[in-house]
Write a structure and sequence with these properties.
The chain is about 75% helix and about 0% strand. By secondary structure, the chain is mainly α.
Amino acid sequence: MKKFKLSLASQIFIGLLIGVVVGAIFYGNTTAQEYLQPIGDIFLRLIKMIVVPIVVASIVVAVAGVGDLKAVGKIGGKAILYFEIVTTIAIIVGIIAANVLQPGAGVNMDKLEQTDISSYVDTAEHKEEAGFIETIVNIVPTNPIAAIVNGDMLAIIFFSLMLGLGIAAIGDKGKPVLQFFNGVAEAMFYVTNLIMKFAPFGVFALIGVTVSKFGLASLIPLGKLALSVYGTMIFFVLVVLGLIAKLAGFSIFKLIKILKEELILAFSTASSEAVLPKIMEKMEKTGCPKHIASFVIPTGYSFNLDGSTLYQALAAIFIAQMYGIDMSIMDQFTLMLVLMVTSKGIAGVPGVSFVVLLATLGTVGIPVEGLAFIAGIDRILDMGRTVVNVIGNSLAAIVISKWEGQFNPSAADEQVKQAS
């Protein structure tokens, strides 16, 4: 008799459902939250523990394998161009959705609870002071060890690229170093698979804490905003990313099927970082060359946050509508331009969307205090944003691979069969 075994996706989904039920039962119970939170925190810390070693080792191995600065630069240039185009489309979709759906019209602010957002203010002020030029300058680390300690992903990627090129340039002398990093990458992917066995418990705890803290009732006063955000994100994935996938000769539904485990995990944890190692591994198995998947996906975590940029545009106009501020076409165009700059390069900052909005709203004449009214449901909206970010970055790896003529469609078909 064949032994019945649940897939990891099924286990994570069951953990998600049990977490929702437990969270609803213990709604408002701080003792339950105190017991559940450490379980979720341990899972996220386990993931964060392996992200930097995997990114460094994978990029070094991939770039050293290519060994050509011109080829790496070409891939990087195409990736940045693609990221800028798609995130700009995401901002435009968010702005159009806010104008069509009018989620902030008629909202009674007297019935909304305000949440303390002071923890984000200092980060936002630093972001405003830094500016776009300083963000670009900071990509080059003065101390790569400090960048690794601080989890500064763009600086880590830059250092790893340079180290990979250096190893390739010295030929046989670099082989022992290359073997070391290859071993690190293999070991870390093995550790990733071990950690993923704990994922259902982490998901159960994190979603349980979210539901017990906020409850489903917290959505009611801002239900129109939540529905608008989720509806627009579904449209963006199926129509915009679906069209991009079709132009690249791929199916967005195939991609979602391949990534079902990672998407459930991303939704439950509201953390793109939680699935970064698995996304890199899976996209390589789906037919993307190692050097493209290893470079495009981590870089996309800073430059290609489609779900976040879409939400930021929609939320900014929502707040303006809530305050009765009529934004002209020029004001909305300015908002788009500002978001194109402020939304780049801060993926590692907690509450990234709030930080970007705080750094953006004042420049277009929208009261930043309005964010305090929507902070209460931000975690629930963040779950959807994270899923869109993950799909967008996974698709980017396929698009750049196709663009380079290096995509393996038979590997993708095999992954779809395994996912069925």
